[in-house]
Structures are given as structure tokens and as C-alpha cells.
Amino acid sequence: MSSTSSTQIIRPARTLQGSLTLPGDKSISHRYALLAGLAEGTTRLSNFSTGADPHSSLACMEALGATVVHKEDKTIEITGTAGKFKQPSAPLDCGNSGSTMRMLSGLIAPHPRTFTLTGDHSLTRRPMERIRKPLSLMGAKIDLAEGHAPITIHGTPLHAIDFDTPIPSAQVKTAVLFAGLQANGTTSLTEAIRTRDHSEQALKAFGATLNRTTAASGDVAKLSIPGNQTLKAIDATIPGDISSAAFFLCAALLFPDSNLILDGVGMNPTRASLLDVITSLGGKIKVLNVEEHHGELVGTLQVNVSPNGLRGMHIEGALAAQIIDELPVLAAIAPYTSDGITIRDARELRVKESDRIALVAKNLRAMGAKLTEHEDGLVIPGNQKLHGAQIDSGTDHRIAMAFSIAALRATGDTEIHGAESAAISFPEFFTHLNDLCQR
Ligand SMILES: O=C(O)C1=C[C@@H](OP(=O)(O)O)[C@@H](O)[C@H](O)C1
Ligand SMILES: C=C(OP(=O)(O)O)C(=O)O
């Protein structure tokens, strides 16, 4: 993140009313940017994410020889390299984006060049062995600095593997699929917990062949991708980001008379478990105008809350993995529920842009909440009153936004330090918050 730190003061709100169109989904924007850069022809993308992270992916593709044009109507045109990345003249800067670094590694590993991938203070502390391992099994030559970036990739032809993903990570799955797409032979991959399938949908949209079969014995699915495939450019509109929508959905839950309409929200079933969670907590969601674009469902959400207020719940197992990015905001509103929220099996939160378990615990305590911290989650009792406090976001976008939502029902003002980090995924966040909150 940038070194200029800014503070936002959040005043308590009375209710939340209005409608919003979300900027494009960050996960889908990354994938379209990367695959467009590899493809033949010019890809035209509308509603590309405004977050800094997918722009890191775009900048890396430019450094690899793709042409990126930002049109006046806000569409982005990417003319791909038709499968031939050039030798970049400087290290590929992935900024704050784990998605860029991990998925790009798989995409470039089969190209006969030497690449260095680096990033900011946060990204260079995050675990990268998880992609080095499967890519090395495919024959890739990858050096890490004690498990972290900078990553050096000595590109070389790859061969197919049959890989069981040990951690539920869509980024690791994607690194393997993007490498498999260009390897010799058919690569297969199984994931015990099904993670977001945007890469599978995007690969098919760009013309790749990919199969998913479910074993008769259970729900463990196997993905197979034949190698030596080429991609063709697409025209696409990117659905609104449900992980950004999550902040406003949770804000709407805090006020009995709130009414919020979110247009064009991505509702891919492997990504939208948050909607079930919100319903379990006592939110009422109407889904309208559902359409499908390039395998991605998009719809309008109308949200308000049951007159009985918010219940609590347990989030664990596969569900924790599927809503990993939404857990900080759910934790931040947990004290306002009647029975509290328990989050377990979410150890991955410790290796995101910050240690999100530790920072959620620290900031909830600063606001006066009681809770128990576990290695893999948090137990946050309900029926608690919070007060305004100084919030340490750790320059982690999701922590900054999560505590801006908790602040809406606290007594007194809350100061969010490192608020500029919201721009990593959602630069318009504070403007929308101000417009929708009634005080
Ligand atoms: O594939 C993706 O777009 C992402 C996958 C998740 O990370 P992991 O793959 O590390 O679980 C998520 O936390 C991240 O924000 C985006
Ligand atoms: C973890 C996140 O992103 P990434 O891993 O791409 O940095 C996130 O957006 O919450």
C-alpha cells in the first residue's frame, strides 16, 4: 500500500437507504486481464474493477507485451500477445495483490524468459510455497526468498500433473490451471472444498476446453485441462463485486428500517454463500433480474432486515473458506447480533494482507467488545454495545471497510487509520457510505 496514510472519521448512523451499482468484481477482473494478455486479439471489458489490485494485473500484462487502452467510456481494451510474452525490462510489480502474484506465476512459468515478481511490504510477507510446489511438479524452475516474494521464474516448457490441492485456494487452483493450459498433456486437479470457479468460467469464455467431473463416491470434483491450448479475445461486462457489496449488505442488517438495492451484483454460486449467511442472520434478500454472462450469474439484490433483529451463527468448514473475504465484516457486526458469531476453520485469514484474525480482535476490543481469539478464528458473543475508537486497519482494505461498518452502530465517532487502503478493492467505498447513511 501507499505510504501516505489517511484517516476517515465515521459517525454513527440512524439508517441506511438507497441504491448502488458496484464496481466490477476483483477476482473476475484479474482473470480477464491475465487471460486477455495471453490471448490472440483485442478483448473489450466494461465495468472492470476500479480497485488497485486488478490494475496491478493489467500493468503486469503490459510489461509482458500486451497493449492496454483505457477508453473514454471507461471500457478497457487489451490486445493480447497471442501466447508469446516478452522479456520484461524490470521486475513485475504485483503491488498488494496476492491474486496477481500467484495466478500470474502459473501463467508465465511455461514461457522461455526469466521473470521476477515482487510486491509491497504486505505481499512480500505472504506464503508463496503453495504455488511453487505444484508448478515445480510440472517442471517449473522457481526460486523464492524463504517461501516469499520476490519470486524468480526461469520459464521452461511444462508437463501435465495430477494434483490434489492441500489448501482450499482459488489462487493456487488457478496457477495450476493457467500453467496446465499451456503444458504438454492433460493436467488434472482435485479440490476437497470447492473454491470460487471464476477461472474455470473465464477459461471457457476465452475458448479453452476444461472438464469438471464429480466422483460417484462423494462431492470431490476433478478438473481436467488439456495442454497446448490457445485463447481468443472476448467482449465482456464484469459483474459487480459481491465482496464489496458485503460491506453494505452488513450495514443494512444493522438498522431495522434500512432498505438497500444493489444492481448488477455477481452471484456465481461458488461465491455467493454470503447471501445464505445474511438470510441466516435475519436479513431478507430479494434477488431480481438474474442474467448469465460468460458463465457468471448477475442480479439485483434488495435487502432489509427482519423486525426481530439479527440472530447469530456458527461459520466453519467449507463455508469459512467460501466466504473468506467477507469474514472480517461479519466479525465486525457480530457484537450487534443477539447470539454472537463464531468463526472457525479460517486460519487462512492470518496470511491475507494482514493477520485478519489478530486485527479484528484488536479493533473489536478497542471498541469495547469481549471475544475469544483462536488460532483459526474468533468467538464473538452477541448483545454487546460498542463505542467509537481508534481503528488500526494495518493498511488492509477489508479491515478498514469492516470497521467503518461496525462504527455505524457504535456510540461516538470512530477513526479509521490507513483508510486509503480501501482503494485496493473499492476506491468509492467512503463516498457510497456517506451517500447511503442517514444520520
Ligand atoms: O481467487 C481469487 O480471486 C481469490 C481467492 C481468495 O484467496 P485464496 O486463493 O488465497 O484463498 C481470496 O481471499 C482472494 O481475495 C481472491
Ligand atoms: C485476500 C485478498 O486479495 P489477494 O489475496 O488478491 O491480495 C482480498 O482481497 O481480501
UniProtKB/TrEMBL annotation:
Cytoplasm recorded as keyword: yes
Catalytic activity as recorded in UniProt: 3-phosphoshikimate + phosphoenolpyruvate = 5-O-(1-carboxyvinyl)-3-phosphoshikimate + phosphate
Residues reported in the UniProt entry to bind 3-phosphoshikimate: K26, S27, R31, S169, Q171, D325, K352
Alphabetized InterPro entries for the sequence: Enolpyruvate_Tfrase_dom (IPR001986), Enolpyruvate_Tfrase_sf (IPR036968), EPSP_synthase (IPR006264), EPSP_synthase_CS (IPR023193), RNA3'P_cycl/enolpyr_Trfase_a/b (IPR013792)
Domain (Enolpyruvate transferase) ranges: 11-433
Quaternary structure note: Monomer.
Name of this chain's protein: 3-phosphoshikimate 1-carboxyvinyltransferase
Organism: Tunturiibacter gelidiferens
Name of encoding gene: aroA
